[in-house]
Amino acid sequence: MSEASQKLNNKESPLDSARLAAAVSEGILTEDQAERLTDFWTRRGVTGPLAETLPHADIEEVRFVRGFHDIFISLGIGILMVGLIYGLQHLLPAWAISAVGAVSIWGLAEVFSRRMRLALPSFLLSLAFTPFFFMACFGLVVDQDLTGLSLGGWRQNYETWLVIPTSLVALAGAVLFYLRFKVPVGIAGITGGCLFIVAVLIEMAAPGLIDRYHVGFFLALGLVTFGLAMSFDIKDPARVTLNSDKAFWLHLMAAPFIVHSILALVASFSGQGSVGYSVAVIALFVILAIVALIVDRRALLVSAMSYLGFAIGYLILEANVSEEAAFAVTLLLLGGFILLIGSGWSLLRRVLLAPFSGQPLLRYLPATT
């Protein structure tokens, strides 16, 4: 037996999803090679000791913390950045502080993301770079604080031709940061930047259009983001490459847009705080749960949980019980429902997808277990 074969059958060194993702990020394997290897594992079957160590596809892993060392370093980064910003607030204008912050974040990422490859610090640095760089770019052409400035405010107060170039420069910085450090959450930041530029273009072409049709606009943004997330999920149905992580953050980004927009539409027809609205919220949650089960993404349900709790509470109050009792029963029902759907996730997926067994589309979805 060759040394490679011995390692393959050694329980102490399983080819799990985290190691495969690390091999892709370090350039040992390309994403295409990782996907082909994954397909070999999951579709042709693996026997022997390794079979027991392979990850289940329906476990929604989020690889952004690997140990307390990651947390310890992240605390240090946070304290350092707060001290840097606080120390410079009376010495430099806001845009310059943002620029210093962006440069500092890039430097820290060179150490903790590219060289040490620490998961949580890489996640936090990637999350922080885009807003810092955006504020620095906009600050170069705007002399006042941008907080609370609407898209209409841009058109009324500033040269419109400055908006798109500065947005593109900021977006280019986010893309370069992602290409340099390959942190999956960076895809969500880039997507957000692209959606912002689209919003600015629409506002410039038709002032006030987004304000008048903001519900439909944000619903469209959510559906586009969801579609992009699914494009990454389809590439990695076994959930072992970085495509799965990219899809996770996009799903988490898409869910609030979709949920809040649909419920705003429901409220406009039935009136918020009515029995009809509460029933519609529960029905929407059930539909989202079905979609989440099909695509195997629990993140889709997070944004709807608070609405579901309010809907259940309202219906209980309609039964003339005390507010304390309604609050307690609402939490019990909501918590129990979440635990029920969470613990029975695999079984529910099998039941839901059983009628479609053998259909070609199932090849693009995680396998049921």
Automatic annotation (TrEMBL):
The chain crosses the membrane at residues 71-88, 94-112, 119-141, 161-179, 186-210, 216-235, 247-269, 275-295, 300-319, 325-348. Keywords: Membrane, Transmembrane, Transmembrane helix. This is DUF2157 domain-containing protein.
